């Protein structure tokens, strides 16, 4: 799975898709991740208040990783 996500809602949608692809309920993913089901739900719903540590736990449990790269659209201009 290699997808682009630029905001919490897109991240949540990708996590939901992967969770469903792996036939896991939110509760099962939460248990594997050491989190509460409500935390998984918040991530999937695009909550901007999710802690990075929580997001990384869910990604790891799904066998996913977080990568950082330059924006392809060139709409991020530092210093200018």
Tell me what the structure shows.
With 80 residues, the chain is mainly α. Helices cover 50% and strands 0% of the residues. It contains 4 helices and no strands.
CATH architecture of one domain: Orthogonal Bundle
Mean pLDDT: 90
Main CATH class of one domain: Mainly Alpha
Topology pattern, helix = H, strand = E: HHHH
CATH names the topology of one domain as 434 Repressor (Amino-terminal Domain)
* Beta strands, count: 0
Helical percentage? 40-55%
SS content category: mainly alpha
In CATH terms, the superfamily of one domain is lambda repressor-like DNA-binding domains
Beta fraction: under 5%
Integer-rounded radius of gyration: 14 Å
Q: Which segments are poorly predicted (pLDDT under 50) over 5 or more consecutive residues?
A: none
Q: Count of DSSP helices? A: 4
Largest sheet: none
Rounded to the nearest angstrom, the distance between the terminal CA atoms is 34 Å
Question: Outline, from the CA principal axes?
Answer: globular
Summarize the structure.
The protein has 80 residues and is mostly helical.
Features:
mainly alpha
Question: What's the layout of helices and strands?
Answer:
Layout: H1 8-21, H2 26-33, H3 37-44, H4 52-61
């Amino acid at each position: 799975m290699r997808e682009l996500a630029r905001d919490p809602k897109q991240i949540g949608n990708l996590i939901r898709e992967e969770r469903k692809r792996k036939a896991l309920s939110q509760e099962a993913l939460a248990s594997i991740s050491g989190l509460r089901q409500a935390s998984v739900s918040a991530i999937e719903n695009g909550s901007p208040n999710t802690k990075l540590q929580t997001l990384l736990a869910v990604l790891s449990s799904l066998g996913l990783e977080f990568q950082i790269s330059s924006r392809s659209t060139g709409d991020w201009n530092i210093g200018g």
